[in-house]
Amino acid sequence: MKKIFEILLSFLQTSQSETLQKHIFSIWRSFIRKFQAVLFRGNAKLCGDLCYEILRCCNSRLSSTRKEACALLYLLMRSNFEYSRKTSFTRVHLQKTNFPLEVKDLTKRIRTVLMATAQLKEHEKNPEMLVDLQYCLAKSYASTPELRKTWLESMAKAHLRTKDYSEAAHCYLHISALVSEYLRRRGTYPQGCAAFHMISPNIQTEESSIKDDSGMQDVHYTDSTLIENLEQAARIIEQAERYEVLGDIYKLIIPMYEVARDFERLSESYRKLFEAYNKIVEVMHSGKRLLGKYYRVAFYGQAHFDEENGKEYIYKEPKVTNLSEICDRLFNLYTYRYGKENVKLIMDSKKVNVDELDPKYAFIQVTYVTPYFTKEESKERLTEFERNNNIQRFMFETPFTKNGPAHGSITEQYKLRTILTTSHTFPYVKKRIEIIEHTEQELSPIEVAIDELHNKVIDLQEVVRAVTPDVKKLHLNLQGCVSTQVHAGPLAYAEAFLSKDKVNKYPVGKVAALKDVFK
């Protein structure tokens, strides 16, 4: 029977005429119906080889071959389901498998794999798109840990090439969580990926959803595999200067060394922690650590961007990347693909009216954004690291006046604050994350004054409370005006809103809040 299987499989492996292929697929349909036990009982190698060749045919240039291959794949899955139901009734009954939904999910994942694989070459010069495609592939292999691990490693290598160390480290953290979840299901690591919740909320959400099917049977991870990936993540996290995360990573590693009585590695782990905490003290004293800048990037132009049209992302850029640098990078990236004459940048933060845009151009809008925190969050996130770790909401502000111009006098100056929420928190396995929610807040002139003065007070407090005060920075803060839009200082705000003849024009609560800022 094995010889017959190999002969029939060779017909799928080699090029045939369309007429002959129809007969070959017909033979395979008969084979699957008559010899289910050969394919589905015991070792899955024969079934796996057949699946591989059918999937290859699904990617054929000939539409007739693709149709035949898809029909055969469906028949194979249907036959497997029916055969398994007869021989393993208890398991199927307990799981209450909904076959049509399972098939729909599988075909969706297969389509994702085929499309993403085809586009990898096309986007090889676009680091963000390349990683997005690799991410799609990793996500499609949720039920096959080894393949998901392979694509996460590929993403990590891509990030290391561009020196995006935070993202590379998180790829290895996701791999570690994947391994830990496998070990949990094998009964050797009870915490599973839930142990990673203190590092990033993204990890547990994604790695806890792996499916316990045949793909899980083909891998053999151990505690050593988990330790190896955690240590790799720790090394790269150190390069990213996110030293605070090392404490949480070693909380996962050290217990395993203790169980193994590996005192040499325990000593090395505590030495690394000692160095990490010293570096935290050092960067907090110097204030020279730069954990990245964030930009909102929106794409418009159906003719060029296709599925990306209308989508908005938050891009995490390294160190102190300024607006002109990211604009130049994106402009060069997309002019390489679409042509210099077809790409235009939108430099302001105003809402874009798509109907007013020329459809023959590819438009890219870039806006600088900052992390947004509520008052409660601001009280909890005291350090620079905490304000740049596991962040999901960002904001930018657009000045305007009721009579038209963007800027006006203090008593006429309004601000529209736009708060953006992303699908995942930063840092993540990708350096750009899609925006899923917009919220707008309109600030009245007195609210603008309160906000501007409050921000200035925070800047001054950071300088004054520093272990090693920066006199130059303090001098610049004291000299500078509060609002660059209207060139106003604290006294100008006091005269505009707190003078006896004007104070009654504004809400009592807002006046009290403004007075509190001055105290």
From TrEMBL:
Keywords: Guanine-nucleotide releasing factor. Coiled coil: none annotated. One of its GO terms (biological process) is small GTPase-mediated signal transduction. It comes from the Eukaryota. InterPro entries: DOCK, DOCK_C_lobe_A, DOCK_C_lobe_C, DOCKER_dom, DOCKER_Lobe_A, DOCKER_Lobe_B, DOCKER_Lobe_C. Residues 139-519 form the DOCKER domain. One of its GO terms (molecular function) is guanyl-nucleotide exchange factor activity. Belongs to the DOCK family. PANTHER family: DEDICATOR OF CYTOKINESIS DOCK (PTHR23317), ZIZIMIN, ISOFORM K (PTHR23317:SF26). This is DOCKER domain-containing protein.
